[in-house]
Amino acid sequence: MMRVAAFEHYLRTGRVPNPRLDAGDEVKFNHNHDRLGRFTFSGGAVGMSRAPSIAPPRSRIPSTGRSPAPQPSSAAPRRRAAAEIPGYPESGRTSWRSANDYAFAAAANHYNRKYNLKPGADEYKTPEFLKAWAMRESGGEGDHAAFTTDPFQVNKPRDWAPEKARLGLQQGQKMTPAVSAYAALEWLRQKSFWHDGKGGVRRLDTQGALERYNHRKVRSRESGQEMHYVWYARTIMQMARAATAKERRA
Amino acid sequence: MRTLTGLDYSLFLLLGGCHGGDGTKARGEAAVITNGPCDIRPLSKLSPSIFLSTLKTVKYLGDVKTDKARFQIYYYDDVDIQDSHENFRLIVFNADCKYLGLYVTDDNPVRIEGNKVIYHTRYPGNVVTFTGDKPPDHIWIDGDLPEFYSPDRERMMR
C-alpha cells in the first residue's frame, strides 16, 4: 500500500519524496521504464540488458561450413504493454500511437491495485481499455501532440472545471500521459457513482460511467443516429474488447 | 452611462470583436449570447472555468424568486470541436447583477418555475430549489451533487 501511495503522490504532484534528494544529492531521472522497472528508451526498447530471445554470439556457434539451421526460440514472444487498437495502425506516420503503452499499463496496474480489483471485475482496467479510450480522445492522425501530452484530454487549458482540482490537477498544468491517465481514471470513477438524492449511491458499470464522462447529448457527425455520449462509450468498449481478443489470438 | 448588456456583447462579437479572455483571437468561432439584464463580460475574469471567446452559448434563463432574494439565472454550454467535450455551467447573479458563482453540471436547464430551475435528465435529480438569501451549497442534478463555486472558492481550486 505504501508503494501505491507513493506512486499516487508522484502522479498527483510530479514529485517523489526522496531522502537522498532532501540531503542535497543530485540524481539523474529517466522516465522511461518497462514494467519490470528496467530503463528503456522512449520507444519501449530495453537498454543495458540483453533480451532472452537474442541469438548467441556467432563465435559460439560451431562452424560446420554451412549456415546453421534456424533454432526455435525457447523464449515466449514478447507481449506488448498494450495491444494495437483495431482501426488505429501504429506504423509509419502513426507509430506514435504506441508511445504511451507503458504509461497506460502502469496506470491500469496502479488503479487495479489501489482499488483491489481482479481480472473479470467490471471495474478492472486493462491497458487496452485505456489505449482504446485514448484513441477516441486523441488518436486521430493530426493529434500527435495531444496524444503525447494529455491523451485523455482531461486538463486542456480552456476546458477547466474546479472539480478537477480534487484530482490533484491545476489549471494550466503541463500534462504528461501518466498524469492524464491517472486523472482520467479517477474522474471516470467519480462518474460511476450516481446519487439518489436521499444519501444513497449506485454504481454504474464502466460503459455507463463513460457515457456520463462524455455526456454530450446530441447527435454528432461521428455518432450518426446515436447520441454522441452513447456512441462514445459503446465504441470505446468495443475497441478495447477487440484489441484484447486480437492480442489473445496472437 | 448605460451598462453594456448581454445583447450588446453578442453584437460586439458578431461585429468581429471576438477575443478570448486571455487576449487571443478566436478565429472562425462564435459565441451565442442571448439577451439578459446582466453584463456578462466580466465572467471570464471572475470565473477561471468560463471562456467567452470560443464556441460557447451563454443564455439568460430567467429569475428565481425566494422569500428573501431574487437571483438571475444564466447557463453556459460549450463544445470543444477537437475532442467533442461539452461543458455546462449554471450561472447565478443576484438581483443587482452581481456575479455570485456557478455550478458545474452535465446538462442545460430548460425552464424556471417559481423558485425552481428545472432540468431534463436521464438520471434522478432534475430540480434546483432556491431558498433563503443565497444559492444552495449543493444541488442534485442527473445523479450528481454539484457544488456551488463562488469566485473566491473557484480561485482557491485552481
Return Rg of chain B in Å: 15 Å
Query: How many E strands of chain A?
Result: 2
Q: How do the strands of the widest beta sheet of chain A line up side by side?
A: 1-2
Unreliable residue runs of chain A: 46-76
User: Helix proportion of residues of chain A, in percent?
Assistant: 25-40%
> Strand percentage of chain B, roughly?
25-35%
Q: What is the 3D shape of chain A?
A: globular
Largest sheet of chain A: 2 strands, antiparallel
Q: From the structure provided, what is the oligomeric state, counting identical versus distinct chains?
A: heterodimer
Structural class determined from secondary elements of chain B: mainly beta
Strand content of chain A: under 5%
Distance between the termini of chain A: 34 Å
Strand segment tally of chain B: 9
- Largest sheet entry of chain B: 6 strands, mixed
Low-confidence stretches of chain B: 1-29
Class from helix and strand fractions of chain A: mainly alpha
Number of helices of chain A: 8
Q: Estimate the helix proportion of chain B, in percent.
A: 10-25%
Average residue pLDDT of chain A: 79
